[in-house]
Amino acid sequence: xxxxxxxxxxxxxxxxxxxxxxxxxxxxxxxxxxxxxxxxxxxxxxxxxxxxxxxxxxxxxxxxxxxxxxxxxxxxxxxxxxxxxxxxxxxxxxxxxxxxxxxxxxxxxxxxxxxxxxxxxxxxxxxxxxxxxxxxxxxxxxxxxxxxxxxxxxxxxxxxxxxxxxxxxxxxxxxxxxxxxxxxxxxxxxxxxxxx
DNA sequence: ACCGCGATGCCCT
DNA sequence: GGGCATCGCGGTA
Length: 196
Fold this sequence. Notes:
It is a single chain. Helices cover 17% and strands 30% of the residues. Strand 1 and strand 2 (32-44) form a beta hairpin. Strands 1, 2, 3, 4, 5, 6, 7 and 8 form an 8-stranded antiparallel β-sheet that branches. The protein has one domain (6-195): Methylpurine-DNA glycosylase (MPG) (3-methyladenine DNA Glycosylase, Chain A, Roll), CATH 3.10.300. The protein is an alpha+beta fold. It has helices at residues 6-9, 13-20, 109-117, 126-130, 136-142; strands at residues 24-29, 32-44, 73-78, 82-89, 96-107, 159-162, 170-174, 191-195. The relative contact order is 0.24. The chain is built from 5 helices and 8 strands. It binds a DNA duplex through residues 42, 44, 51-53, 58, 60-62, 76-84, 86, 99, 101, 131, 135-138, 176-179, 181-182.
């Protein structure tokens, strides 16, 4: 499958967040490969978005990568124990990003099961199977995405995104999650997920 | 099924 | 020192 180009990412997060649905996130590590379909995303619109880490032009060491240009990863820690994986969008100096909130396992099932639960895929309970990659922190753990993947070039060969299949689907549009601190921005319909 | 809560570390004021 | 772009558990139904 064809890898997404730098230009794909060089657009508003609202567009990229929607278009990433159905695409395939690929993680290569130690000669092994994990693939998963992107099924939920959120747009963070930068300077003007009270929910974004770069709101108001905030530029600290943590968010620096958001200013560096499209197609790089922004990985940060939340609640002291989970990571969130974002894709930086827009040109250098315009700090937008898309948060991946959920993916669906396609390949490398045993690797994901090991990373999450220290078991083979077959050994997972039903609920563990369902919860394998259905949250931002969970998908990071399953795909071995942590601090070390911050600033990774998604046009490279360790962590990247490919075109998906041609399956038809709908996009459900809702409010973003976990941003009650963001004033009126908490109600913006900037969360998207794959239906069917 | 839904709800409440504690875990735990880093970032930024 | 306050607060998090979360998760999983254990309680009540």
